[in-house]
Design brief:
The chain has five helices and four strands. Helix 4 links the parallel strand 3 and strand 4. It has a two-stranded parallel ribbon with strand order 1-2. It is mostly helical. It has a single domain, classed as Rossmann fold (3-Layer(aba) Sandwich), CATH 3.40.50.2300. The longest helix has 22 residues. Its main location: cytoplasm. It is an enzyme of class 3 (hydrolase). Acts on tyrosine phosphorylated proteins, low-MW aryl phosphates and natural and synthetic acyl phosphates.
Length: about 150
C-alpha cells in the first residue's frame, strides 16, 4: 500500500488490511506492508491523527515510514496506491525494474462506493482521517474478498 509520504493514508490502509486478515485468520497467506514513493518521511511514525483514528477503531500499528524499493516490485503480487500521482510514480519506477511481478493499481478501484481516489488528509481535519479510514476499510474488504 503506497502513498506519497507513508505517514497518513498508506499506514492506515496497511493497519486496516492487517486487521482484516488477522480477523479472518489468514495471516499466513498475506504479507502486508506500506511504503512511500518519496523519501521525505523515512523512519517516522505515522501522523498522530492517523494513529488516533486507528486507535478509535481498535487498531494499533508500529509502522515506520519507508520508501518503496526495487525488491518490492519483484516480491509483492499487488501494489495498491492512493491517487493518480502515486500510480504514475509507481508505474515509472516499475518500468526500471527487471522482473516486476507486482500488479500496480489504485486501492480505490475496489471501492464499492466507486470513490477511486483516497485524498491525502495531511492538511485536513480529523474528519478527513476518518474519511480515509472508511474508504480504506471498504476497499480492503472488497480486495480481500476478491483475492481470498
Amino acid at each position: 500500500l503506497v502513498s506519497v509520504g507513508n505517514i497518513c493514508r498508506s499506514p492506515i490502509a496497511e493497519a486496516v488490511f492487517r486487521k482484516l486478515v488477522t480477523d479472518e485468520k489468514l495471516e499466513h497467506k498475506w504479507r502486508t506492508d506500506s511504503a512511500a514513493v518519496s523519501d521525505w518521511n523515512v523512519g517516522r511514525f505515522p501522523d498522530s491523527r492517523a494513529l488516533s483514528c486507528l486507535r478509535n477503531h481498535g487498531i494499533e500499528t508500529a509502522h515506520k515510514a519507508r520508501q518503496i524499493t526495487k525488491e518490492d516490485f519483484q516480491t509483492f503480487d499487488h501494489i495498491l496506491c492512493m491517487d493518480e500521482s502515486n500510480l504514475r510514480d509507481l508505474n515509472r519506477k516499475s518500468n526500471q525494474v527487471k522482473d516486476c511481478k507486482a500488479k500496480i493499481e489504485l486501492l480505490g478501484t475496489y471501492d464499492p462506493q466507486k470513490q477511486l481516489i483516497i485524498e491525502d488528509p495531511y492538511y485536513g481535519s480529523e474528519k478527513d482521517f476518518e474519511t480515509v479510514y472508511e474508504q480504506c476499510l471498504r476497499c480492503c474488504k472488497a480486495f480481500l474478498e476478491k483475492y481470498h
